[in-house]
Amino acid sequence: MKKYKFDELKDEEHIAIALASLFRCLAATPTDDGLRYSRLQHKFAEGEFEKVDRLMELYEKYTLRTRAAEARVDTERRERFDLYEDYDPADDEDEFLAMRLEGGLFTLQLLSLITGFLATSAEQPQVSAVLPRAFASY
Amino acid sequence: MHRVSLALNEPALAAVAFRRKKKFCRGGALRVLGYALQGDLENCRTFVDIFGLKTLFAAFMKKVRSLSSSVSFRTTDGSGSVADRQNDIEWLHICDAGEQEHEEVQVR
């Protein structure tokens, strides 16, 4: 009787939420939280930047997922266009946005935010230096 | 009593949940952690102070087992592993910390 079902996408989404809020909160008050913030950033420099690699891996994964979701949205839009005579795509934009967010855009946004914080950090220059290389390889 | 004070200290709860139940309620712990840290500076601070980053990044790197309990020694009387006791000690510390609520949290 195993109730818990492993849900990788949900887990990664929650991890991204947690990390993004850590970055956002601790970076906002650098004078009090300088030590905590650099601890957070130092984590990415540990172990030969394996966490930067993992971040890029996730970034790639969610880019592909978002693209797939957008392709689905486009098909859906075209189908509805064919189905109804006086169809206005603007009516369904909210629904389409929800589809894209659910399909990976939400996590992708958070991952981008984390990447942005790392890239612009002055405290850990080696991490921001390694990022362009990581981006180029992916 | 402990439960109430822990509810005020959600990051601690989530971090402990990672360590104690590993695979079983990881999803739930991550969810709670996400909500607890969202836009809450105090919780973010507490989370870093209680070495939560280690467990969070372990999950980030997909290691399901936590680092602290991956090395497990049997004690001579067989009453439990050292790692288990370590977890229990951390658990007590965090219960104490929860009661202090907004004071600086000291673990170890």
What report would you give on this structure?
- The complex is a heterodimer of chains A (138) and B (108).
- Chain A has 138 residues and is mainly α.
- Chain A has 4 helices and no strands.
- The mean pLDDT of chain A is 83.
- Chain B has one domain.
- Chain B contains 6 helices and no strands.
- Chain B has 108 residues and is mainly alpha-helical.
- The two termini of chain B are 22 Å apart.
- The radius of gyration of chain B is 14 Å and the shape is globular.
- Chain B has helices at 2-7, 10-21, 26-37, 41-49, 52-60, 82-100.
Summarize this structure as a short list of keywords or feature phrases.
heterodimer, A: mainly alpha, 4 helices, 83% helix, elongated, B: 108 residues, mainly alpha, disordered N terminus
In short:
The complex is a heterodimer of chains A (138) and B (108). Helices cover 83% and strands 0% of the residues of chain A.
Average pLDDT score of chain B: 58
Residue fraction in strands of chain B:
under 5%
Oligomer: heterodimer
> Helicity of chain A, in percent?
over 70%
**Range of helix content of chain B:** 55-70%
Query: How would you sum up the major sheet of chain A?
Result: none
Rg of chain A, alpha carbons: 19 Å
- Total helical segments of chain B: 6
Strand element count of chain B: 0
Number of domains of chain A: 1
**Biggest sheet record of chain B:** none
Q: Calculate the mean pLDDT score of chain A and round it.
A: 83
Which SSEs are present, and which pair or pack?
The complex is a heterodimer of chains A (138) and B (108).
Chain A: H1 8-28, H2 30-83, H3 93-119, H4 125-137
Helix pairs in contact in A: 1-2, 1-3, 2-3, 2-4
Chain B: H1 2-7, H2 10-21, H3 26-37, H4 41-49, H5 52-60, H6 82-100
Helix pairs in contact in B: 2-3, 2-4, 2-6
